[in-house]
């Protein structure tokens, strides 16, 4: 239902470099091996290659690793539309794990569903991609993001 | 409202060793530095010491790391009450991040809210603990867990 | 991201009459004044005209009334893809209220995001429509539905 | 885990009459037959007697009716702790339906889990009560509530 979403205009012309800089400061994304793959107004993609260090007891990627990449994608999608002096804080999210994922590569794709002065709602999906195969949907998330202003935080 | 919860009886007398063994196979918990702190019928606690490798861009523990520990605690709380041949699969969860957390130690406490033949619902909280201080609530989760039988998975 | 969704094939050729019959038995939908507006494989729309009896304290449609229509739409979207002898049970849902709604007409649009033997995940949006105006997004939901078989329930 | 919750102090000494007045303006609560049963600082209970007009296709109370009462209870629990000039807006909620409910009476019990200047998180349960029987847990919710100030809304 992307056609329902109004065109998104960034308030901060430097939104892309701001997301790149902030992402680079997320030590946890480095721990996961996650990489920023795409940054557009209202849309962010994060790539997560499979690694043994991310697995749960059955050898699949742990739901928490999937959620971490998708949560970051949802938050940064929101940041692309925030004023230059605002920071991102995740208020809450809900994730459905739809299929077990083994990789070799996961892609978290998030976009802004609704903007507001105080809160932004992002939704996103995680896909598993193997060479030469159609991508498979493995998770879906809805996240509520706070536009944090005057809290001593910057992104 | 713990007094509402019926007493929980494990179906598998070896529930504790089963949780310990399964947790040890979660490479991602090792990556996070998370440790199993307590296993009772219908209740599991996981400890997560602060580490720079877990932080987001403002220096707090990443929501994804917090959620990962709490998701595992919710899942293993469910596992303590499952039949011996069943495995844990997280269907979905929702987490509210209530306060930023910097450590030095986080504790994820999860318990079973409702058992069923097919699905188990667990709820849990994450607390931040510093020496000599009252613990601070930093996150709360509700998780739906599938009792996975006959799927070629074991825990 | 509708283009990601695989084509949905109903297992029960009478899925449409089954949904219509089941909806007619939902006394609560009558209480709300909700009407079934569209039934396709994996997709259901429910219309909810504004009525004073549905309002909250500020004169907007109560979140609960919006959620009720959308929950039913999510459940029936799932039912269109279930075997003939299965019944719908909502396991859980999460709804974000994105804008206050006053009507004159709300439309709940739900579709199946992922099918499974035991669980189906549906997502949906509610739109406000006024004559001659673009429709406005007022709420979004993700719902987990149980494919209830052998439980003495029919739809 | 109620023992974890800090004691809640109302900022508005007239919190109780404010909740009662606001509830009386919710036409939808009247439509449901819901009644305010208890108002304390940070805690609200709403009673919902069984009625045929609230049922779904299997004769149980519709998840939407249960969620509506519980959503109102969560919102009003938050309102008891808000400043006198603030109004309640539900940002989002998640509900797990834990058992089918037929009545004769449902009780929605909600309390504040975390207060903040901008957002309040409430959690709540719905119980089914029959004369002479232990109450049965039928649903659980986590709700995020906006402290709406300077938006032209009052409660």
Looking at this protein, list some descriptive labels.
homotetramer, 155 residues, alpha+beta, Thiol Ester Dehydrase, Chain A, six-stranded antiparallel beta sheet, 3 helices, elongated, disordered N terminus
What would your notes on this structure say?
The structure is a homotetramer of 155-residue chains. Chain A has 155 residues and is α+β, with helices and mostly antiparallel strands. Helices cover 21% and strands 37% of the residues of chain A. The first copy, chain A, has helices spanning 15-24, 27-32, 63-79, and strands at residues 35-40, 43-49, 87-97, 105-114, 119-129, 136-148. Chain A has a 6-stranded antiparallel beta sheet with strand order 1-2-4-5-6-3. Chain A is elongated, with a radius of gyration of 15 Å. The two termini of chain A are 30 Å apart. Chains A and B meet through helix 2, helix 3 and strand 3 of A and helix 2, helix 3 and strand 3 of B.
What topology does this entry show?
Four copies of one chain form a homotetramer.
Chain A lengths: L14 H10 L2 H6 L2 E6 L2 E7 L13 H17 L7 E11 L7 E10 L4 E11 L6 E13 L7
Antiparallel strand pairs in A: 1-2, 2-4, 3-6, 4-5, 5-6
The total number of structural domains of chain A is: 1
Q: What level of helicity do the residues of chain A show?
A: 10-25%
User: What general form of chain A does the structure show?
Assistant: elongated
Secondary-structure element pattern of chain A, one letter each = HHEEHEEEE
Instruction: Predict the CATH topology of chain A.
Output: Thiol Ester Dehydrase, Chain A
Strand order of the largest sheet of chain A: 1-2-4-5-6-3
Average pLDDT level of chain A = 92
Instruction: Give the CATH H-level superfamily of chain A.
Output: Hotdog Thioesterase
- Per DSSP E runs of 2 or more residues, the count of β-strands of chain A stands at 6
Unreliable runs of chain A: 1-7
Radius of gyration of chain A: 15 Å
| Largest pleated sheet of chain A | 6 strands, antiparallel
Number of helices of chain A: 3
Instruction: State the assembly state of the protein chains.
Output: homotetramer
Distance between the termini of chain A: 30 Å
Largest interface: A-B, 39 and 39 residues
Task: Give me the secondary-structure category of chain A.
Answer: alpha+beta
CATH class category of chain A: Alpha Beta
Beta-strand residue percentage of chain A:
35-45%
